[in-house]
Amino acid sequence: MPVPPLFARLVDDAGLFPPERLPMRDALARHRADTARSHPVLTHRFLCPASRLAELRAGWPDPRESVRVGLIVDTGFAGLSAALDEIAADPRLRLETVEIALPAADAAQAARTHVPALARVEAEVFVEIPRTAAWREALAVVAAAGVGAKVRCGGVRAELFPTRAELAAVVVTAVSAGVACKATAGLHHAVRYRDPATGFGHHGFVNLLVATCRAVRQASAADVEAALEIDDAAVLADEARAVADPVARTARRTLVAYGSCSTREPIADLAALALI
Q1: For the packed helices 221-229 and 164-177, what is the interaxial angle rounded to 10 degrees?
Q2: Cis peptide before 19 (omega within 30 of 0)
Q3: How many C-beta atoms surround the C-beta of residue 189 within 10 A?
Q4: Three-state DSSP class for residue 113
């Protein structure tokens, strides 16, 4: 089933991560079922921490099937080489993306030390840039190295959620610099909302797409931020529906995908908004 280019191959499978936290066996079973159904909103890429690669390899049931892996390097830069070697040693694992975080302490210096070498990794690399005063400097190093950035949009604690102004600034800067980005955490629904259980205000993934489209059209930072503020589903859907395909494709070169612990809810949300 064709979907508009704004939503095609958007959602990585992050079933191992909170709040879903599926056991490896259940996560792999769901992933295989999703792959068989082949919904075009999903990337059909399985996000796996480096620390759980052995568990993935032991749990993958069919030696004739391969799994497209997005490697989350939770072992830090020191553990990257070993994780890459472990994947290379198993022909069933097809490495597509690598995500690795800079330390919050002196992120700019860490970027200068570690990021240039990442360009030699034979996969798309996304470097998570912490929310510190040095984020622009770190992002400039990422851009110069020709790798991507990873943007954290939430998490299990309130302080992990960037403000709308912070997120808009990252979007505008990434579009201007031509940096591909992946988003992670907190994007549980299409439209921004407040979780009644936690009180956390969550960014919506369609809000983020629309904000990126506005940045592509060279809207002001205030207008990009305003897109992240929209909580009227009909208004947001109307703007998303009106995005021209060339703008959508350019926007998706910036926001290439995001990880979702649910592979059902993003599709259901888009369908409820009549966007797919």
Answers
A1: 130
A2: yes
A3: 22
A4: helix
What is the DSSP code (8-state) at residue 264?
Answer: S
Domain ranges of the chain: 11-269
Beta 42-49 vs 11-13: how paired, if at all? parallel
Mean pLDDT of the 230-258 span: 98
The crossing angle, in degrees rounded to 10, of helices 205-216 and 265-272 is 70
In tens, the pLDDT along 137-155 reads 999 999 999 999 999 999 9
155 — alpha (psi -120 to 50), left (phi > 0) or beta? left
Q: Which residues lie below 8 Å from residue 274, measured CB to CB, with a gap of 6+?
A: 237, 241
Measured CA to CA, the distance from residue 185 to residue 19 in angstroms comes to 9
Question: What 3-state class would DSSP assign to 194?
Answer: strand
Tens digit of each residue's pLDDT (9 = 90 or more) over 119-134: 999 999 999 999 999 9
Alpha carbons within 13 A on the beta-carbon side of 95:
23
Taking the C-alpha atoms of residue 101 and residue 121, their distance in angstroms, rounded to an integer, is 15
Cα–Cα separations (whole angstroms), residue 28 to 40, 160, 274: 19, 28, 30
Q: Which pair of structure tokens corresponds to residue 128? A: 């998570």
The count of other CB atoms within 10 Å of the CB of residue 50 is 21
Report d(CA 100, CA 243) in Å as an integer: 32
**Kind and range of the H or E element at 187?**
none
E strands of 36-136, at which residues? 42-49, 67-72, 93-101, 124-128
3-class SS at 59?
helix
The class that CATH gives domain 11-269 is alpha beta
CA distance 81 to 257: 24
Give the 3-state secondary structure of residue 206.
helix
What's the CA gap between 104 and 181, in Å, rounded? 19
Number of H helices, E strands in the chain: 11, 10
